[in-house]
Amino acid sequence: MTVRSEAIDGNEAAARVAYALSEVVAIYPITPSSPMGEWADAWAAEGRKNLWGAVPSVVEMQSEGGAAGALHGALTSGSLATTFTSSQGLLLMIPNMYKIAGELTPAVFHVAARTVAAHALSIFGDHSDVMAARQTGLAMLASSSVQETMDLALVAHAATLESRIPFLHFFDGFRTSHEIQNIEILDEEDIRAMIDPEAVRAHRDRALTPDRPSLRGSAQNPDVFFQAREAVNPFYRDCPSLVQRVMDRFAARTGRQYRLFEYAGAPDAERVVVLMGSGVGAAEEAVEELVRRGERVGLLKVRLFRPFSARDLVAALPKTVRTLAVLDRTKEPGCAGEPLYLDVLAAVAEADNEGFAPWKERPRIFGGRYGLSSKEFTPAMVVSVLAEAGRDRPRNHFTIGIIDDVTRTSLPWDRSFSTESPDTVRAVFYGLGSDGTVSANKNSIKIIADATGRHAQGYFVYDSKKAGSMTVSHLRFGPRPIRSTYLIDRASFVACHQENFLDTIDLLSVAEEGATFLLNTAVPPAEVWDRLPREAQEAVLEKRLRLFVIDAYKVAQEAGLGRLINTVMQSCFFAITGTLPAAQALEAIAASIRKSYGRKSAVLVERNVAAVDAAIAHLFEVSTKDRAVTAHARRPTVPHDAPVFVQRVTAEILAGRGDLLPVSALPPDGVFPTDTARWEKRNIALEIPSWDETWCIECSKCALACPHAAIRAKAYPESALDGSPETFKSMAWKGKEFPEGTRYTIQVAPEDCTGCGLCVEVCPAKNKSEARLKAINMTPQPPLRETERLNYDFFLDLPEADRRHVPAETVKGSQLLQPLFEYSGACAGCGETPYLKLVSQLYGDRMLVANATGCSSIYGGNLPTTPWSVNAQGRGPAWSNSLFEDNAEFGLGFRLALDQQRETALALAVRLAPELGEGLVAALASAPQSNESEIAAQRARVAELEERLRGMTAPEARDLLALAGSLARKSVWIVGGDGWAYDIGFGGLDHVLSSGRDVNLLVLDTEVYSNTGGQASKATPRAAVAKFAAAGKGGPRKDLVALAMSYGNVYVARIAMGASDAQTLKALREAEAYPGPSLVVAYSHCIAHGINMTLGMQQQKLAVDSGHWPLLRFDPRRRDAGENPLVLDSRAPKIPLKDYAYRETRYRMLTSSRPEEAERLMTLAQQDVDERWKRLEEQVKHGS
Amino acid sequence: MDLRTSYLGLELRTPLVPSSSPLCESLDNLRAMEEAGAGAVVLHSLFEEQIEIDALSITHYLGTGTESYAESLSYLPEPREFRFGPQEYLEHLWRAKQALGIPVIASLNGRTGGGWSGFARQLQQAGADAVELNIYDVPADPGVTGAQVEERYLQIVRTVRKSVSIPVAIKVSPFFSATANMAHRLVEAGADGLVLFNRFYQPDVDLNELEIRPRVLLSTPQTMRLPMRWIAILHGRIQASLAATGGVHTHEDVLKMLMVGADVTMLCSALLRHGIRHLQAVKTDLERWMQEHEFDSVSLMKGNLSQKSCARPEEFERANYTKAITGYHLKL
């Protein structure tokens, strides 16, 4: 047997085994397990076969609940089946897991373990999901590294078939699922050798089939259910030893021996730490170091967590053990202790009670929590825990890795303790999202692993923004296996690929003494030193760093690679570190370039190879000898006038010091202030729009289209211009709505603009003397930053227009309303956020938002800041995210509560009317609130009511005071993407539409699961490629609008701002005004379409022109007026679908990968369009 | 009536050749052209630059936004196989060869030296009877001299000539200072035929949007005067076939071109305007005219009015201008 080594991540490792051993793969996207499904789908699309020579059926379902159901059915019918999931997804599978286990059905669930949402959602790793499934009857096998993930995946598949118990095989989300290591790959023969064909046949023989009819899923009664439930006991009793036998067989073949519980450390250890998952790597390093220092400590790795074998656990421990420290990567508030701790406690007690204890004196056991939501877990922390174990009375239920200054559970740890090996190269790279840094590093790992046979590890950290984000790559290379499952904090090489990071974070804190620092900068080498911020200079001098510089953007630009600097920086890394001999390194990079790009473009190969050569020629070392520190210091993260919470908490997170915040700094219930995005000045735009009032026609389309509220319009009295900055621009307001002399300004927020250019594209006004220019034009940001910052500050202080007099029914008028959704971290040029911003302008001061999990919940609610903001009166959108699947119901709950509160308030008011005044109460109950003036009047009444109530002491008065606000109208918005509305949340959405309640559902339809990385939803159109539809989506997209119209009493609209902003505005206003459920489906161009986002609005227009997205409004109120409720707002298709579609990579790539299929699907997709248009025309002609 | 002619060493049954146009992208259209009497067909052009743009664009967009946010490290699946490049074109060429009995001439617009030679070779392998080089650029750089432009043309011809054994035609620009000399050197460099002339796309102005628009203008019969003159001048003076293209709409246009010395006449705008069946009409009219005027064969008339053979060769040179204008005024 030849051992083949390859650098892959944990997800791919698990997916390779699962795919080979499955006939049915039921999937649904959820981070961080989605790549397993993506691999399976991609392999099936290219026809890769499983162990039995067939291509598995890879089926995406509408939710994880659906995936589990399909899995159950496939298993029951005799197929070998698998699924992949995480977090809430696993929770949705639980009902079926009970069934699958209860019926003794072999299956493997591969889980990239992730935090379950509680006070907040987190996409990162811990065991709260798998621990929530420990009672279902599934066996649970924990992998602690990428190698183990592949190995134990196979053990799980082999053992499930032999034991009949379904397995949950889990590994830590991100830390293992996304860590790249070069591991020994199991090939098809390894896999085949481990699978017992008899067990496979036995599974098939148990299939539900009319040829041998049987009944399952019976209903049982008190007489027999209990006994039947106990009938499974022998299977669980025998499972652990069976798993060990499988592990032994595996060891015989591969040489890698695993045990159910595996001990490492001193044979005579007195203190032993017990844990499972990726933390094992850090713990093992710590224990080895302590043992080397003579301490009697050890580590017990837990692999088979269920069925839990107390005897095997006890047998694995040294007899000398006196204290067991059990670490759980989960939290169960209110419990007697976390799960592993309780199990160990029980096992030890049982050993004593039942006489299988090897020790003389029962060891003490204490437990604690670590690593929630991928919190760092380092050898230093393990040392701290083991030190605590040596105390007379160790602190039980401790935490490690945080500072708990509230209930003081946390143990301190010595940050200077390190187990990093001196022969390991440790490199940290700070890159800009999408600049190629991460992909280059992934590539370097493969190069080094392949060329040198050294061990390599890569782990990548991303920030919370989708545009202009920072990526940090942590790479280790060394002669020994790398078990360091934590970030590098003493790097021998630090690279900063984006110069301005130096101004915002302390990135040299990770550099060790004498390390090398590579900076990408446009500043000439001779001037670099003086341009470094003082903090960076100090670090360079104190740590005696070697400083290298390169202008990678220049090199890349000259090589024709635009802003892709990956090849350039990668070449510099190899050249500086000498990880490989120079010639060999360059040849390896060139070979890898040919491999990566060769199948796509010879030009790209040429350009990248040219960049490799040019890189070395442009790399310079800057002498730091006799350098002095200069005065240029970093700007404070937020200005000093920011609110206290922003200064104390938000700013710390922004500066990369969130890990240091103590428990007391954070709200215990997940309630955060809004209005924080404005404190985060990101300065990510290279160019920003510059207004030329000479040609402006005051349409305000630029402000409407801006996804980030970074270009705004205001109309204000001329007198407000007093004291304006010199460069502040204005022009006369051209409408009649405001008094003579009113001025109008379009102003850009220079530090918040992302430079997407959508505003310039939608600007209809041409400069008549130079037609390439418009009334706004993209201009380099740096020279404008300071002047425009002052202008923007002045602009913000200009009075807001009186909402009562703003003509909000026009696009131009709507843009005079203050946006209460601003500067989000969405992709530059996002197609969703312009809609949200518009809604916030129209209704932000009275809206509640129920936001489904997805892009909008991430750019809306991912710390550190939120774009939802407040107006001068302190009013603004109130926002919450419950789950992915329940959003419509969650929002309906808002409405139910608001209506109920109003009812209660009115009842109380009526009772108190004699004291409050009959007139006021009557007006509060019946005054109309259909426009801004009426709402303002009602708010005044509510204020008066509150004023009167404050003077009253009766309990009813106090009750009414608490509810008085409910008498002013509130607007409920239920917001989410198509994954929610069409798939996982459709049942709830449908129910809410049928409820008749006054809620507004806004579907930001990108036709794909954007947030999880572009998986197909039922909104994905035919002929488009998406993940989980890698061969092109074969079926038509679901017509959600038609389904909603079928109710007859639901307001329904399909809108596309780029095609008709007036129709968008009209539809949103009608939807809000409609006193029942409204559904607005908004075309949202998306980065997942593979388009130039600057042209997103044009693409929306083409979608409408081609008939792909017919604009319509269905208003049941029109029926009451004797009219057809359906109005078509766009004309018959005037361009073929392909003229729209083939401007998008999602469609076009199929013409390159499968031209015939692309042609076939496009023909069908055109038919879909034609037929739907015909149906709509019929509906308009004959009535709905 | 013998309509046969020889072009690039190929024996054609008629001198009517539909030239490179979008019509040639459909196999059904190609069959219809053959049925209507085409002597050969020239396929639409294979553009190297377009292939590159497609590849670069898809690669760019597959990478856009990736590795930025932990949940969406990429947005599109990346297929293992991409078929960027000429495969689609080569398959079409191969199918055309299977479907047609008449010669199929491939058209190529390269960008790089490797592109010209590599693609030309692949066209030959896919069955092309000849290759027509469509050198399509506007030398807008003030730093580039006429000599450099000429050398680029010659270099391309030499490159392709070395790469293939099938005949090579070159569709030339009318904008050389010394057209006759250039024609001579192109032939020396290895061209088997010259196609006169390439009608470069000329952009238009959109007055409403204040933008430049790519609005294609179809040729008119007036267009043919320019190629007609140069075919007349070159006929018998260079050792290569001559194809007339641009403004050939009727049988009379065909006759004129043949008489000044064209071996074939290429039709494009007329077919786009009137449909492929127009070719049949031209052929019928051509035969009728020849019958009426007692021309038995195309070869008989070919070049009979070329500069070398006509009675007043100076008519094709400068004197012609003065007379034409004078005549025009007299008619007013």
Notable features of this structure?
heterodimer, A: 1184 residues, alpha/beta, Rossmann fold, Pyruvate-ferredoxin Oxidoreductase, domain 3, nine-stranded mixed beta sheet, eight-stranded mixed beta sheet, 36 strands, 39% helix, B: 332 residues, TIM Barrel, eight-stranded parallel beta sheet, two-stranded antiparallel ribbon, disordered C terminus
Description:
The complex is a heterodimer of chains A (1184) and B (332). By secondary structure, chain A is of the alpha/beta class. Chain A contains 42 helices and 36 strands. In chain A, the strands form six sheets. Chain A has a nine-stranded mixed sheet, with helices on both faces. Chain A has an eight-stranded mixed sheet with strand order 30-29-31-32-34-33-35-36, with helices on both faces. A seven-stranded mixed sheet of chain A has the order 3-2-4-5-7-6-12, sandwiched between helices. The mean pLDDT of chain A is 96. Chain B is an alpha/beta fold and 332 residues long. Chain B has one domain (5-330): Aldolase class I (TIM Barrel). In chain B, the strands form three sheets. Chain B has an eight-stranded parallel sheet. A two-stranded antiparallel sheet of chain B has the order 1-2. The chains are: A alpha/beta (1184), B alpha/beta (332). Chains A and B meet through helix 2, helix 15, helix 21 and helix 41 of A and helix 2 of B.
Protein topology:
The complex is a heterodimer of chains A (1184) and B (332).
Chain A: E1 4-9, H1 10-20, E2 24-27, H2 34-45, E3 57-60, H3 64-76, E4 81-85, H4 87-102, E5 108-113, H5 128-131, E6 139-142, H6 146-163, E7 167-172, E8 180-185, H7 188-194, H8 197-205, H9 225-230, H10 233-254, E9 261-265, E10 271-275, H11 279-292, E11 297-302, E12 304-306, H12 310-316, E13 323-328, H13 339-354, E14 364-370, H14 379-389, E15 398-400, E16 410-411, E17 425-432, H15 437-452, E18 455-462, E19 470-478, E20 491-496, E21 511-520, H16 525-531, H17 534-542, E22 546-550, H18 552-558, H19 566-577, H20 582-597, H21 602-617, E23 620-622, H22 644-654, E24 687-691, H23 701-705, E25 711-716, E26 731-732, E27 743-748, H24 758-762, E28 776-780, H25 781-797, H26 811-814, H27 833-843, E29 847-851, H28 855-861, E30 878-880, H29 887-911, H30 913-916, H31 918-926, H32 932-950, H33 955-963, E31 971-977, H34 978-984, H35 986-994, E32 1000-1005, H36 1040-1045, E33 1051-1055, H37 1061-1073, E34 1078-1083, H38 1096-1105, E35 1112-1114, H39 1116-1120, E36 1126-1128, H40 1137-1141, H41 1145-1153, H42 1155-1182
Parallel strand pairs in A: 2-3, 2-4, 4-5, 5-7, 6-7, 10-11, 10-13, 13-14, 14-15, 15-16, 17-20, 20-21, 21-22, 29-30, 29-31, 31-32, 32-34, 33-34
Antiparallel strand pairs in A: 1-8, 6-12, 8-18, 9-11, 17-19, 18-19, 22-23, 24-28, 25-27, 26-27, 33-35, 35-36
Helix pairs in contact in A: 1-2, 1-6, 3-4, 6-10, 11-14, 12-13, 15-19, 15-20, 18-21, 19-20, 19-21, 20-21, 29-33, 29-35, 31-32, 32-33, 41-42
Chain B: E1 5-7, E2 10-12, E3 16-18, H1 27-36, E4 41-47, H2 48-63, H3 87-99, E5 104-109, H4 113-125, E6 130-134, H5 146-163, E7 168-172, H6 179-189, E8 193-196, E9 204-206, E10 211-213, H7 225-234, E11 241-245, H8 251-260, E12 264-267, H9 269-274, H10 277-292, H11 298-301, H12 319-330
Parallel strand pairs in B: 3-12, 4-5, 5-6, 6-7, 7-8, 8-11, 11-12
Antiparallel strand pairs in B: 1-2, 9-10
Helix pairs in contact in B: 1-10, 4-5, 5-6, 7-8, 8-10
